[in-house]
Amino acid sequence: MAVVIVCDAAGRPLADRDVVVEQRAHAFGFGNIGFDFVGDDRPARLAELWFDVFNTATLPFYWSDFEPERGSPHTDRLRRAAQWFAGRGARVKGHPLVWHTLAPAWLGDLPVGEVEAAVRDRIKREVSGFAGVVDSWDAINEVVIMPVFANEPRPNGITRLARERGRIATVRLAFEEARAADPSATLLLNDFDMSTAYECLIEGVLEAGIRVDALGLQSHMHQGYWGEERTRAVLDRFARYGLPLHMTETTLVSGDLMPPEFDDLNDFQPPSWPSTPEGEARQAEEIERHYRTLLAHPSVQAVTYWGLTDEGAWLGAPAGLVRADGTPKPAYETLRGLVKGEWWLPPTTVRTDQAGRVVVHGFLGDYEVRCEGRTTPFAITGAAPAR
Amino acid sequence: MAVVIVCDAAGRPLADRDVVVEQRAHAFGFGNIGFDFVGDDRPARLAELWFDVFNTATLPFYWSDFEPERGSPHTDRLRRAAQWFAGRGARVKGHPLVWHTLAPAWLGDLPVGEVEAAVRDRIKREVSGFAGVVDSWDAINEVVIMPVFANEPRPNGITRLARERGRIATVRLAFEEARAADPSATLLLNDFDMSTAYECLIEGVLEAGIRVDALGLQSHMHQGYWGEERTRAVLDRFARYGLPLHMTETTLVSGDLMPPEFDDLNDFQPPSWPSTPEGEARQAEEIERHYRTLLAHPSVQAVTYWGLTDEGAWLGAPAGLVRADGTPKPAYETLRGLVKGEWWLPPTTVRTDQAGRVVVHGFLGDYEVRCEGRTTPFAITGAAPAR
């Protein structure tokens, strides 16, 4: 809620006058990945669908793709994508600076001391190089499993680093380098492990004095929607640390669910995994329930849905909000209806009181008020009730 | 291995002489619980069986039993039991100083600040009161689950403490008080959670500078023997921290296994859970495999079997090494055959060389050499190969 006093050009309150107020942007982070827009050929219709709902783009900085050959990073390609999003008003997030999966092959044989130096250099280079465009980073990803990750013939360099130095030392170096390279960036610890293991890691990291700006909670629900009760329990457990929560990777499939016996989602990649009418109806219902649960929790400040289109989706899963043929699924319309409908203040005529005041109720974000041809921006900020 | 020079009373080496060497004690901790000997009526036959295999007694300091009424602890009863064990040459361990389960009812309503004060007082009182008799303590038990433990209508005082202060602060206060009360005691962090959660907790605790003397790993195998591969993997993961490992709570049942769907072992307590001939044969085979695996690992310094007799065993499970009727099961004989047979040096005649030397190969521990009516103690100490 905001109380706005509408004044004329000379600063005199305009009493008893019709004015139009309108929301311009959400403060809440409604995110999606921007992977489809990294190449220079950016599909226009898909971009329209993206910007009609989302305001925060997660871009892929997977090290093995970003710098397949040591010393030749694809910085320019990523910078063009980041600037493209930023130029259209989106916030941009980089994912992830340190991760054992998709570590570059050339890291494989280096001694741990050299791995550490390479990791520090890479963090420094990306975070300072993208400062001003990328404003938040998954500083480090999936640390719980990092030192014991064993899905590969030989442990990768990052796993060796985390095993030898310890999880907390590895977290510290990631945050330390990223913080130094861009003190204004929002730095996240991100994990898929929602068990007590992640709690224990967080407590150790915070006790060690490492400043974490937000906790990233993944929620790839390929095996089924968590439901409100479990979701709230997870949020409450991680809200205990007094840090903002970002739901960094959220998916709900619009086809068959992945069977529950797969512990590692990567182990299930059927040749074909179609989107179905029943699946799409379920996905639409669940996305609404899930986003309502998340938005109602005072600690949640951002939700990133993991994928806009089924085309090229992770695991080939029908987890997108848009079908492979480019048409929006019901879940897209549902989410749009919330983000730009129920949770959005469209142009609305209200009348000022005797003191020139109007009271605006709306979600946190940027607004404007128009009166007699003049447009003035204002914001609703502050405590949770103002949402 | 030790090289012993046998001398006469004047200190002159006795060359080319028959001497008898004999082991007196294991350095390795072969433990069992001493719960059956806490009352003043100590079953003599059971005691014989206990001392014939074990050298380390775990005594119950469960707070709700120890001090059911605030200010009236059963210190004397426990002291008599501890002294009884110590007087018979056993080392004595106290279990546990801090634990959410079996927290006293009177803690229930106290504000967290008063819970903390009561916990500190209790640790100080027990550890200083038993110094010189109890030489090791589970300083804190099951911290991974402690703040989220929810198997009760209202959270107990210890859970509230751990939730409000955090796991590491709670670990710190336990170790801090216990260390101050008896700087010579061996203090353990103990848990049943063998997942990455316990790793993360340990890393946080060590990063926070808390000195832990040994890591306690429970292994109640009511749902089946882990097998060598899993056991070694667990040991290797926790050996990474460079601390001695104590297998603090080891059980193998000699009857039907508990069905795998029970996550909390406490949830399965059938009206009758008999020991069976097939179960006893399996238990004997598995105890041998398990102890061989544990003793072969360089980090393991103690193994405590959880229960001597089926009479009054935890969960009513046939997990003892002695049947309820007092007769030893095959597993008892197997374990005795290892601890006092294969891994033990009985009185053995050897001949000194020209310099009066004999070379003694044996497990770490106390030995003696006898020659011409004189008995001299010596020890095999040091690195793992000497075992």
TrEMBL record, chains A, B:
Cross-referenced Gene3D superfamilies: Glycosidases
Alphabetical UniProt keywords: Carbohydrate metabolism, Glycosidase, Hydrolase, Polysaccharide degradation, Signal, Xylan degradation
Domain of life: Bacteria
Record's catalysed reaction(s): Endohydrolysis of (1->4)-beta-D-xylosidic linkages in xylans
Record-listed E.C. numbers: 3.2.1.8
Domain GH10: 14-338
One Pfam entry name: Glyco_hydro_10
Enzyme class: hydrolase
SUPFAM superfamilies tied to this protein: (Trans)glycosidases
InterPro entries with a match to the protein in the record: GH, GH10, GH10_dom
Family statement drawn from the similarity comment of this UniProt entry: Belongs to the glycosyl hydrolase 10 (cellulase F) family.
Protein name, per record: Beta-xylanase
Species of provenance: Actinoplanes subglobosus
Phylogenetic classification of the source organism: Bacteria, Bacillati, Actinomycetota, Actinomycetes, Micromonosporales
